[in-house]
Specification:
- The protein is mainly β and 205 residues long.
- The protein has one helix at 4-12; strands at 17-18, 37-38, 58-60, 78-80, 98-100, 148-150, 168-170, 173-177, 190-193.
- The protein has a 3-stranded parallel β-sheet, with no helix packed on it. Strands 1-2 form a two-stranded parallel sheet. A two-stranded parallel sheet has the order 6-7.
């Protein structure tokens, strides 16, 4: 199993690092610049990415269950067909991040910056999105059942075909949201629903 020290040495040498299909369970990669590291198919269960930089990375078919991304920079990162159950994204930068066709259930996105995020067809049940900023995002087809949105911002986003049963909405900002049917957030929220006026700017990206 490769160690943090070996990865740090390769980073200092300026190499592009391929850790595909490696067993890295529980590894501490906190505060490292991992933007050029490939993790396709890797086992990263319970890995610590706190404060790490993964900007622009592509991660597919990896096991990231229980991973810690607190305060990490994942902007423009693509995570596809990954297991992210029970992961922590608190205070993370997820600007223009794409988490596609993935299981992210029971994860924490509290206070995360998620503007223009893409979560199409991912499972995000029982997640915490309290105080997160998800404006201008593509949330189409995502499964948010039993998740919490307290003071969350998701104005100008596409929530069509999203599963929203037993979701807790409290004091959300949800103006100009594309959604099928009646708005599910509670009265008193700052919310206006528009069915045809807007599309999220990253919808066709």
């Amino acid at each position: 199993m490769i160690t943090r020290e070996e990865i740090e040495r390769m980073l200092k040498e300026g190499k592009d690092i391929d850790l595909s299909f490696e067993d890295l369970e529980g590894i501490d990669l906190s505060n490292l610049d991992l933007s050029n590291v490939t993790f396709t198919g890797s086992n990263l269960k319970n890995a610590n990415f706190e404060g790490a930089k993964l900007e622009g990375s592509f991660i597919a078919d990896a096991n990231l269950e229980g991973a810690n991304f607190k305060n990490a920079n994942l902007q423009k990162t693509v995570l596809q067909r990954v297991n992210l159950r029970n992961s922590n994204f608190e205070n993370a930068n997820l600007f223009r991040t794409a988490i596609l066709v993935s299981d992210v259930s029971r994860s924490n996105f509290k206070n995360a910056y998620m503007v223009r995020v893409r979560l199409e067809d991912s499972k995000l049940t029982e997640c915490i999105f309290d105080y997160a900023d998800m404006t201008y995002s593509n949330l189409r087809g995502a499964d948010f059942q039993k998740s919490s949105f307290i003071r969350t911002k998701f104005s100008y986003s596409d929530m069509r075909k999203a599963k929203l049963s037993n979701v807790w909405f409290e004091n959300v900002e949800a103006e100009e949201v594309l959604i099928y049917g009646r708005k599910p957030w509670i009265e008193g929220s700052k919310a206006e629903v528009n069915y045809s006026k807007i599309m999220p700017s990253n919808y066709d990206d």
